[in-house]
Design goal:
The protein is of the alpha/beta class. The chain has helices at about 15-25, 45-55, 55-65, 65-80, 85-95, 115-130, 160-175, 200-210, 230-245, 260-265, 280-295, 330-340, 350-355, 375-390, 390-395, 415-430; strands spanning about 5-10, 35-40, 105-110, 135-140, 155-160, 180-185, 215-220, 245-255, 270-275, 300, 320-325, 370. It is globular.
Length: about 425
C-alpha cells in the first residue's frame, strides 16, 4: 500500500512563517499526519533582522520591494537560493525514504517563497529520479503581492485576498510567465484562538475595556522575530503603568543576544510577566499557551502576520483588541491596507482624526484593530483617550464575519486553516 506524505515547510525568517506553519499543523485532519520541516537557509534570516532594525537599511528594504528595484532584488535573490538547492533535494529524499510505507506522492506546503522556488526548480528531476509525484502548495504569510511569491513551477498559490491574486496574475501576464493556479482563502489562524469564550469570560474582557472598572487590564506583547521596536515598547509600558496601575503586561519573546537587555530590564518592572525561550518553536507555543491561560483585552504588536487575528471576533479567546505599532516593510503596509478595506481598522483619514483626538463622524467604532502613534508618549496618551472616549468598549461590538452579499466573503472568517486543508485534499486527489 502506498501513502501520501504531507510536509509543512517553513523558513527561519522571523516568526511569522513558523506561526502559519504551526496553525496549519494544528488544524490538519488527523489522517493526513503532516510533518514539519524547517529550511536550513540562513541568509534570509540575517537580512530580515538587519533590514528591520537599522533605519537606513529599512529604507533600502522598502525601496527594494517596489518598482524596478524589486525586479532586480528578486532576480538576485533567486540566484542566491540556487546554492542550497542540492541540500534541500537531499532533505526531501531523506523524508521520502524515512516512511515505513512506500511514498509515491509528496505534498509540500511552503510558507516561504525562497524554499518554494528551490523545490519548484528541482521538481521534475526529483519526480524522475525518486519515482514520486511532487505537489508544491505555497501559502502566503502576508497579503502583499510581492513578485517573489509568484513561484513558477508550483502547483498552487494560496493568497489572503482577491486583490493580491489579481495583482500577481497581472504581473505574470505582463512578464509572460507560465500560468499558476491561485486560490483565495482566509488567512490561516491557530484553532485555539477561535475558541468561543463563556459569558463570564466575555464579561471579564468587557471589564478590561471599561474605564470605570477596577479590573486588571491584561496586555500581550509578542516580540517580533527581528526584535523591532524594543525601546518603543519599553517606554510605552512604563508610561501606561504610570498612567493606569490596572495594566498587566505579558511579554513573549525569543531569548537572543539582541533581546537580553530588554528582557532583563522588563523583568524588573512591576506588572510585567516574561515568557521566553531560545527555540523559536517554543516561543510560538508559549504565545499560544499565554492566550489560552490569560484573558487578554489588548495586544500590542507589529502589523505583521499578527494583524490577521483581526479576523477573529471579540467573543473568541484570541479576539483581543489589536494596537498596531509602526509598520516595517511593504508587506506590513499591505496588511494594514487589507484591514482598512475590510473595515477591520480605521482608514488613514479616520486615523488622522483619531490621532488629533477627534471622534466626529466616527461613532460607533466597529473595528478590530487600531494603529498607535509612533511616539510612545503620544501612544500612551492616545490609548488613555480611547478609553475615555469609549472607543475600545465599542470595538467589542465588531463582528468580523462575512455577509452573504459580501463579494470578498472568501477573504474573511477565522477558519482559514481548515479551508486551506480542504483545498490541499482536493489538489491531492486531483493529482493522484
Amino acid at each position: 500500500m502506498e501513502e501520501t506524505l504531507i510536509v509543512i515547510a517553513y523558513a527561519q525568517t522571523g516568526l511569522g512563517h513558523l506561526r502559519v506553519a504551526n496553525a496549519l499543523f494544528g488544524t490538519a485532519p488527523h489522517y493526513l499526519k503532516p510533518v514539519l520541516f524547517r529550511s536550513p537557509e540562513q541568509t534570509s534570516t540575517i537580512l530580515h533582522r538587519l533590514t528591520s532594525i537599522h533605519p537606513l537599511l529599512r529604507k533600502v528594504l522598502e525601496r527594494s520591494q517596489n518598482g524596478w528595484a524589486e525586479d532586480l532584488v528578486s532576480k538576485m535573490y533567486l540566484q542566491v537560493t540556487k546554492f542550497g538547492q542540492g541540500h534541500i533535494y537531499r532533505e526531501m529524499k531523506t523524508l521520502l525514504n524515512s516512511r515505513i510505507m512506500p511514498v509515491r506522492h509528496m505534498v509540500i506546503v511552503c510558507t516561504h517563497f525562497g524554499l518554494a522556488h528551490q523545490l519548484a526548480r528541482m521538481k521534475s528531476q526529483f519526480e524522475e529520479r525518486e519515482q514520486a509525484k511532487l505537489t508544491i502548495v505555497v501559502c502566503m504569510t502576508d497579503d502583499s503581492p510581492q513578485k517573489l511569491w509568484y513561484v513558477v513551477g508550483a502547483d498552487c498559490l494560496v493568497v489572503p485576498s482577491s486583490k493580491t491574486k489579481k495583482t500577481l496574475e497581472s504581473y505574470a501576464k505582463h512578464n509572460r510567465l507560465p500560468k499558476l493556479q491561485i486560490e483565495v482563502s482566509p488567512y490561516p489562524l491557530s484553532r485555539e484562538f477561535s475558541e468561543e469564550m463563556s459569558l463570564s469570560q466575555l464579561k471579564k474582557r468587557v471589564s478590561q475595556l471599561t474605564l470605570e472598572s477596577e479590573a486588571p487590564i491584561h496586555v500581550s506583547i509578542p516580540v517580533s522575530g527581528a526584535a523591532v521596536g524594543l525601546s518603543f515598547t519599553q517606554s510605552l509600558v512604563r508610561k501606561l503603568t504610570k498612567a493606569q496601575p490596572r495594566f498587566r503586561f505579558t511579554i513573549i519573546s525569543r531569548e537572543a543576544p539582541y533581546t537580553h537587555t530588554f528582557l532583563r530590564n522588563m523583568n524588573r518592572k512591576p506588572g510585567v510577566t516574561i515568557a521566553s525561550a531560545v527555540d523559536e518553536r517554543e516561543v510560538v507555543a508559549l504565545y499560544e499557551t499565554a492566550v489560552q491561560k490569560t484573558l487578554f483585552g489588548f495586544e500590542i504588536t507589529k502589523p505583521s502576520e499578527q494583524a490577521f487575528k483581526a479576523l477573529l471576533c471579540p467573543t473568541h479567546q484570541g479576539g483581543t483588541i489589536l494596537l498596531l505599532t509602526e509598520p516595517v516593510g511593504r508587506q506590513e503596509y499591505d496588511n494594514l491596507d487589507f484591514l482598512a478595506r475590510h473595515g477591520l481598522m480605521p482608514t488613514p483619514e479616520e486615523h488622522q482624526k483619531l490621532f488629533s483626538l477627534n471622534r466626529e463622524e466616527l461613532t460607533p467604532a466597529l473595528w478590530r484593530a487600531i494603529r498607535l502613534p509612533t511616539n510612545p508618549t503620544q501612544a500612551s496618551s492616545f490609548i488613555q483617550w480611547c478609553f475615555k472616549s469609549h472607543i475600545f468598549s465599542e470595538m467589542l461590538a465588531c463582528r468580523s464575519t462575512p455577509s452573504e452579499w459580501d463579494q470578498h466573503a472568501d477573504e474573511m472568517g477565522w477558519n482559514g486553516a481548515e479551508k486551506f486543508w480542504e483545498l490541499v485534499e482536493f489538489l491531492t486527489k486531483k493529482d493522484s
